[in-house]
Amino acid sequence: MIPSTLLGTASIPNNGGELRLTQRENDFSIHLKGVRGELMNSRVHGSEIALAELGCAHIQGKDDAMVLVGGLGMGFTLAAALKTASITSQVVVAELVPEVIEWNKGPLGECAGRPLADNRVRVHLGDVAELFKTKQAAYDAVLLDVDNGPEGFTQTGNNNLYSIESLQAIRETLHPGGVLALWSAWHDPKFTLQLKKARFKVEAKTVRAHKGKGSRHTIYLARKI
Ligand SMILES: C[S@@+](CC[C@H](N)C(=O)[O-])C[C@H]1O[C@@H](n2cnc3c(N)ncnc32)[C@H](O)[C@@H]1O
Fold first, then answer.
1. Choice from 145, 148, 156, 161 to test ligand 1 binding pocket (greatest atom count within 8 A of CB)
2. Nearest CA, atom 8, ligand 1
3. For residues 97 and 174, what is the distance between their CA atoms, to the nearest angstrom?
4. Rounded to whole angstroms, how far apart are CA atoms 192 and 205?
5. Which residues line ligand 1 (CB under 6 A)?
């Protein structure tokens, strides 16, 4: 097998360890050093696109829609959100690790068609959780894919994101009818209950990892009613 080449490393804030970008032929991987595993691989991105298609379906054709994407990763979710959003819409992308933004400005950015270059995009460098502290209705859709599911993986601090308090804070940043969409590598009925307790109307959709094939992933769709 052709060995992979290390293109870059980054420290994850809050002692989250080391994030690595590697390339093998045309495929890129962002993973955590050691046994913790892979966050994202460019070869398999069907469910990251589905996250935006399902989470933004209700804003199609809407003027001035506001979308929040957390985090950037390889930009597939961001690119798919831009595809659905109208020309007058804005998409904020929150990314914790500065190097991930730099990597997307280099060769990695080609994977999703360089969505950061779209003038509807605004980058928030920092923890996406900071944007939920305002508790003011600002977004029509919040698309969350910062871990491999509703538990802290990139950094343990992300565990707080999935608590009832945090889900309620996210709900307050949504306009009425707005949707929180969350990507997960597994289906956890307890998380559906958690979203319901935070007063969302919830659906859990199964999507395939790659072109209708591969692993089954879950997209939680939580609508503010
Ligand atoms: C699985 S990747 C996202 C993949 C992305 N959906 C795509 O289409 O390529 C997770 C990303 O979230 C970032 N991240 C992790 N925790 C975060 C947080 N609390 N706030 C913002 N970004 C975060 C990671 O650095 C990484 O870039």
1. 145
2. 76
3. 25
4. 11
5. 39-40, 48, 70-77, 94-97, 100, 127-129, 145-146, 154-155, 158
d(CA 167, CA 74): 25
- Taking CA atoms only, the protein residue closest to ligand 1 atom 9 is 74
Mean pLDDT of 11-20: 90
pLDDT at 35: 66
pLDDT at 210 over 90: no
Question: What are 57-105's pLDDT values in tens digits?
Answer: 999 999 999 999 999 999 999 999 999 999 999 999 999 999 999 999 9
What residue owns the CA closest to ligand 1's atom 5? 73
Q: Are 79 and 109 in contact (CB under 8 A)?
A: no
Residue 78, pLDDT score: 98
Which uninterrupted H or E stretch holds 22? strand 17-24
